[in-house]
């Protein structure tokens, strides 16, 4: 990811009655993104999952799309808020819709809501009520109008965060004055894999077979190199519409795999934006009839895994003399390597093998411009003597609330003993 230059403090998106009338993402909108052509017949998706439908004026599909595109703003002040939360696995996203009496500008204007936690693996059947607390709002690219997406976290009726609520602890860390003063910036590189439905095999791959070896697919173009670009582009535009601080996207090394970048984001905003961007991606792949996978190693063998590299800097790192602060942060990270690895995603041991641009999961290392290290520092950071570091260990299915807050805690709040610091410094000196 390019060097982090400036933050965009956008932890929620203000939404007013006349603030936007952009087109929502419907099947018709996806058609225009996928093919950008006019006519009576439209095809959606790549050649591997192409679906055609006759578009006559009186067809059932056309009548349904007319209702989906219906602009209700001239007739009512009411809007639809899609409450989104993280389910019991810690990676699955759930949501349900609520009618709100008027447009809102801040999460505090929204009421708390509840859901059946016994159906999401988050509460027993005899006491299943879980309470949703609205935390951040985004424009809804699917419904358009003044409708919103609402990122929530989950609590017991007594007000205690449930075990899968990782946002609560992260918010406590980011509200620490020492952390606030350091203005932590994050740039997160979310990799993902698109799978063919039913067979759960990567998009563009022959069913039960393999494409040519890796090499031509990374940032490639062409029907034999790029699979799922329409989904990536639709997601890119939808995130911009929503107010997510998405900064770029590209095809990845393994065919059928893509990446997008979110940031620079400040503090808790980073987690909110990643979770909302994941929700939007889930919805777009749902419409396209493709399965989204965040598995860190979806295909075993000589294929790249999927990570969520996290670029990180503090105010002290970005100022003159910041390279020494970066090296001190790396030292702290080396001393808490096991704690970080245990929190950096399920199945990460299948990805962090020391091959395919990864470091071995059991050994901490760092280097300048070395993508085979646990932590990479860019050449420009070394040259300028200030900048940021890239933690390459997080898996694609990591919880961004956990990773971002743990980086802040380890590098800003945690202090190792002098003895441990001296030993770690000796070991790291041998790695450079």
Automatic annotation (TrEMBL):
The subcellular localization recorded is: Plastid, Chloroplast
Q: Please provide the Gene Ontology terms (biological process) for this protein.
A: glutamine biosynthetic process
Task: Give start and end of each GS beta-grasp domain.
Answer: 79-159
Gene Ontology CC annotation, any one: chloroplast
Query: What reaction does this catalyse?
Result: L-glutamate + NH4(+) + ATP = L-glutamine + ADP + phosphate + H(+)
Main location per UniProt? plastid
| SMART domains hit by this protein | Gln-synt_C
Annotated ranges, domain GS catalytic: 166-432
Q: What class of enzyme is it?
A: ligase
PROSITE patterns, per the entry: GLNA_1, GLNA_ATP, GS_BETA_GRASP, GS_CATALYTIC
A Gene Ontology molecular function term for this protein is: ATP binding
User: Per the similarity annotation, which family is this?
Assistant: Belongs to the glutamine synthetase family.
What is this protein's name? Glutamine synthetase
């Amino acid at each position: 990811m390019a060097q982090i230059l400036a933050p965009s403090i956008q932890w929620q998106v203000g939404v007013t009655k006349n603030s936007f009338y952009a087109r929502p993402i419907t099947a018709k909108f996806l058609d225009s993104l996928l093919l950008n052509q006019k006519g009576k017949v439209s095809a959606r998706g790549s050649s591997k999952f192409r679906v055609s439908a006759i578009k006559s004026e009186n067809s059932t599909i056309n009548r349904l799309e007319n209702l989906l595109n219906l602009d209700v703003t001239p007739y009512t002040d009411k809007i639809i808020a899609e409450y989104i939360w993280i389910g019991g696995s810690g990676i699955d996203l759930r949501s349900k819709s609520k009618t709100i009496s008027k447009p809102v500008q801040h999460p505090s204007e929204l009421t708390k809501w509840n859901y059946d936690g016994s159906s999401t693996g988050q509460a027993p059947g005899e006491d299943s009520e879980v309470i949703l607390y609205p935390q951040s709002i985004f424009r809804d690219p699917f419904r358009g109008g003044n409708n919103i997406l609402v990122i929530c976290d989950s609590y017991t009726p007594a007000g205690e965060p449930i075990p899968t609520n990782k946002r609560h602890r992260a918010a406590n860390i980011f509200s620490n004055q020492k952390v606030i003063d350091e203005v932590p910036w994050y740039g997160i590189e979310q990799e993902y894999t698109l799978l063919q439905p039913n067979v759960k095999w990567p998009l563009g791959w022959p069913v039960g077979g393999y494409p040519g070896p890796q090499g031509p697919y990374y940032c490639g173009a062409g029907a034999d190199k790029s699979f799922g670009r329409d989904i990536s582009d639709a997601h890119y535009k939808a995130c911009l519409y929503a107010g997510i601080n998405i900064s770029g996207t590209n095809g990845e090394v393994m065919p059928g795999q893509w990446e997008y970048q979110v940031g620079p984001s400040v503090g808790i905003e980073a987690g909110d934006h990643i979770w909302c961007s994941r929700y939007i991606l889930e919805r777009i792949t749902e419409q396209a009839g493709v399965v989204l996978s965040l598995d860190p190693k979806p295909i075993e063998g000589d294929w790249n895994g999927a990570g969520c590299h996290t670029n990180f800097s503090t105010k002290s790192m970005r100022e003159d003399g910041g390279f020494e602060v970066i090296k001190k942060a790396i030292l702290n990270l080396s001393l808490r390597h096991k704690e970080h690895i245990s929190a950096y995603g399920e199945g990460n041991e299948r990805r962090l093998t020391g091959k395919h641009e990864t470091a071995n999961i059991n050994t901490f290392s760092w280097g300048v411009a070395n993508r085979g290290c646990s932590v990479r520092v860019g050449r420009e950071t070394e040259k300028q003597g200030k900048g940021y570091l890239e933690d390459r260990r997080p898996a694609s299915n990591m919880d961004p609330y956990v990773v971002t807050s743990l980086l802040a805690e380890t590098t800003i709040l945690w202090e190792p003993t002098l003895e441990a610091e001296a030993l770690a410094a000796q070991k790291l000196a041998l790695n450079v």
